Amino acid sequence: MSRQPPNAAILVSFPNADAIVDPLASFILKAQKEAVEKKGRFTIALSGGSLPKMLTGLVGNPAVKWDKWQVFYVDERAVPLDHADSNHLSCTNYLFSKVPIPQDNIHTLDTTLLNDLEELSDAYEKLLIREFAQKDAARFPVFDLILLGMGPDGHTASLFHGHELLAEEDRWIACLEDSPKPPPKRITFTYPVINHAARVVFVVTGKEKAEMLSQVLDNPEAGLPPSRVKPVFPGQLYWFVDDAAAAAVQYARTPFKI
Ligand SMILES: O=C1O[C@H](COP(=O)(O)O)[C@@H](O)[C@H](O)[C@H]1O
C-alpha cells in the first residue's frame, strides 16, 4: 500500500451528456497511448447502464489500437450474453459491433456457470489473474483505466449502499444474489480492484442524479458507494459529469484539458 494519501478527485462538468462523448474518447486515447508505450497493451474495465452509449466517440477513430485492448467488465449481470440485461450486450451494441476489436480481447462471463454464482465469480477472477499474472506479486491488478457509472440510488459497479460487499478486502471479484436493482444476480469488481487502477473515471449525467452526486462529492464522510472509490496513490479519480447532474454540487470544477 502507498503511504501517500489518495489524490483529490478531479471534477469536470460539460454542458450536457452529448458534450462528454468526444472528450471522453480523447481521455481514453491518452490513457491507451501511455499504456501501450509503456507495456504494449491497454487494460480497461467497462460498466453497463448509461456508460456504453458514452463510448461512441471511439467508433471510427483511427487512433484506437483495438488489438492492444484487453477489456473486462466492472460488473456483469448473471444472464446470457445476448440477454437485454447483459452489460456485455450493451457494450457490443454501442461499441464492439462497430469496431475491429479481436473478440478474444473482450473478457466475458463463462455463461456455462450462470447457475452457480460463486463459480461464476471465481472463473471471472481467474481471467483477471491470467491477464495480470501477479496476484502474489502485486496483490491486486492495476488496470490502466476503469470506467464507472453511478445509479440515482448511489450504487456503482454492483456495489450497493449498506451491502456487505462494501467491506470486501480480499477477493478481486465478488457475487451477489440480492441486488436491489434488477436483475438480482450479479458479479462485481471489489473496491481493492477498483482502487488499484491507474485511472478511474465516473461518467454521470442527468438531473435525476443531481441530489446523489452532491451527497457523494460534498459529503464523502457519509460513505456512499462512489465515495469509497479512492484510487491508491498515484492513481487518479475523475468525474466527467454534465451540468444537470452537477447542479447541486459545491465541489470545485476543473476545466477539461487533455
Ligand atoms: O446496474 C448497473 O448500474 C450502474 C449505473 O447505471 P446507470 O444506468 O445509472 O449509469 C452501472 O454503472 C452498472 O454497470 C450496472 O450494472
Automatic annotation (TrEMBL):
Protein's name in the database: 6-phosphogluconolactonase
Keyword Ribosomal protein: no
Taxonomic source organism: Mycena belliarum
Catalysis: reaction(s): 6-phospho-D-glucono-1,5-lactone + H2O = 6-phospho-D-gluconate + H(+)
Biological process annotations from GO: carbohydrate metabolic process; pentose-phosphate shunt
Family as reported in the entry's similarity comment: Belongs to the glucosamine/galactosamine-6-phosphate isomerase family. 6-phosphogluconolactonase subfamily.
Signal peptide: none
Its EC number(s): 3.1.1.31
Key words, A-Z: Hydrolase
